[in-house]
Here is the input.
Amino acid sequence: MPLDTRKFRDVMGTFTTGVTIITTLENKMPHGITANSFTSVSLSPPLVMFCLGKSSTNFDAFMNADCFAVNILTAEQDKLSTHFATFEGDRFDGLNWITWETGAPILKNVISAIDCRLEATHDAGDHVIIVGLVVRAEVQNQSSPLLYFKGAYEKLAPSSGVLKD
Ligand SMILES: Cc1cc2nc3c(=O)[nH]c(=O)nc-3n(C[C@H](O)[C@H](O)[C@H](O)COP(=O)(O)O)c2cc1C
Here is the structure.
């Protein structure tokens, strides 16, 4: 029996993730989307991946570009996440960003950033799996991460401070 889409979404929503903004530069114009399908793939060589929906208005930009950057969001950046998921104008207007090796935008005040050259793309249903070779990766600060669980933003509960063996 085919799996009901609602049920599939509900089950996948129980897998808690961090939240990233993945950016690229196409024809000198910055593009970016919020994504939680990001994961690491290989240590040697260092590879990461994310899944990009084919219906995204940023689809062509990512497919035409030869690079992308992953910006890992802090617990305070839920509004920035919503902005990069929904805003229909220039998402970078008024934002502070720099570039490292590839030219893909690195956002200010994110926990970590990962600069990648495009390594491969793999067709996958209504998404494309985009694999990147990491050319630079830096932890930027010690903030808590933004989490995504059951379709909503969450934060880590304060640690008890008691370390178990
Ligand atoms: C928490 C969260 C995670 C998301 N993860 C992804 C993802 O992994 N891949 C993806 O293509 N879209 C993802 N989206 C949707 C995109 O951010 C965006 O809404 C979608 O690409 C449509 O907007 P666009 O046409 O401007 O790209 C996510 C949205 C949210 C709020």
The chain has a mean pLDDT of 96. Residues 13 and 150 are 4 Å apart (CA to CA). Residues 5-151 form a domain with the Pnp Oxidase; Chain A fold (CATH 2.30.110.10). The two ends are 46 Å apart (CA to CA).
